[in-house]
Design a protein that fits this description.
316 residues; two-stranded antiparallel sheet; 2 strands; 2% strand
Length: 316
């Protein structure tokens, strides 16, 4: 007897994949948030510059992923010349520049406002998908985007920004463009390559860029041996190299892998909105670990952001 598979047979499976992808993005945002606090501790105690820390993070993650893929899935690293060019652009703009421009923004603006500018990327993603790729974007997504941006504005307390530095604003908007490219181009690349291979090859080109800008022979390796006490009354001190290892594995490989992997089952628009959970998670981590307090208006902003995320998730 021939069995006939009906289209509705795959609906529960597809829903399960979407739920898993949603948890992957939220998990990635949480890891990015934790990594922010870990990196802040390492930078303050070691005196290492932010660009050097970014170089260490990118190169360490690149070598780790490259070694694992060469051992387990070497075929995943085979790409055509045409795809190699796309991956190079993806690595430079989607990995290297988004971090560097963000650092420029927060050096000239309050961190919350710099983060808000970066996450305007979700609007760019939605507009690009709708008007450039001609992809359907349901009407409910637009009020969801509005809620997310309004909530982020409350969390960042934009009304306290004063006179905004023009270079800082330009850098924040540049970071938004790079972040939008990370999600949009990533959505296309994971249709051709394995997610971990996309992350690995992107980091390869990002690492090459940093090696040219900041040669490794001038890297301050002595700063890695500095001991950093962990806050929160833990009574634990760790060398900076241990914090760097956490940043490489749990702050780069894992969250980037989860984010790009989620693009196999969710559109970039949805992934971008879900990723705005990062500043909320970062605030909670800073409050619980670093002792940074949350104002009532910031709590309200967090609730508004979560409402926007839920609305976007019901817009499929």
């Amino acid at each position: 007897m021939v069995e006939i598979a009906f289209p509705h047979d795959d609906v529960p499976r597809a829903r399960g994949r979407r739920r898993l992808a949603t948890m992957m993005v939220l998990g990635a945002a949480t890891l990015f948030a934790i990594n922010g606090s870990v990196s802040k501790i390492a930078l303050e105690e070691s005196g290492m510059g932010t660009l050097r820390w970014t170089e260490l993070r990118s190169t360490g993650a690149c070598l780790g992923l490259l070694a694992w893929l060469l051992w387990r899935r070497p075929s995943a690293l085979r790409v055509s010349r045409a795809q190699l060019g796309r991956l190079a652009a993806y690595g430079i703009f989607g990995f290297a520049l988004v971090q560097w421009l963000y650092f420029v923004a927060i050096s000239r603006l309050p961190i919350g406002i710099g983060l808000l500018f970066e996450f305007t990327a979700i609007l760019l993603i939605a507009f690009w998908a709708r008007f450039a790729w001609r992809e359907p974007v349901r009407a409910r997504v637009w009020p969801a985007l509005g809620l997310v941006l309004f909530g982020l504005g409350l969390v960042a307390q934009v009304w306290e920004g004063g006179t905004l530095d023009a270079i800082g604003v330009a850098a924040g908007l540049g970071a938004a463009c790079a972040l939008a490219l990370f999600y949009l181009q990533g959505e296309r690349l994971v249709g051709v390559h394995e997610p971990l291979a996309v992350v690995c090859l992107g980091l390869v080109f990002a690492s090459l860029l940093w090696a040219v800008v900041q040669p490794w022979w001038s890297f301050p390796f002595a700063t890695l041996t500095v001991t950093a006490p962990l806050p929160g009354g833990l009574g634990i001190s760790l060398p900076v190299w241990a914090l760097a290892l956490f940043t490489v594995v749990a702050g780069t490989i894992a969250p980037f892998g989860l984010s790009v992997g989620a693009l196999q089952h969710l559109p970039a628009t949805t992934v971008g909105i879900l990723a705005t959970f990062e500043p909320i998670a970062a605030s909670m981590v800073a409050w619980a670990w670093l002792g940074e307090s949350l104002l009532p208006v910031q709590v309200i902003g967090a609730i508004v952001v979560i409402a926007g995320i839920v609305l976007a998730e019901t817009a499929r």
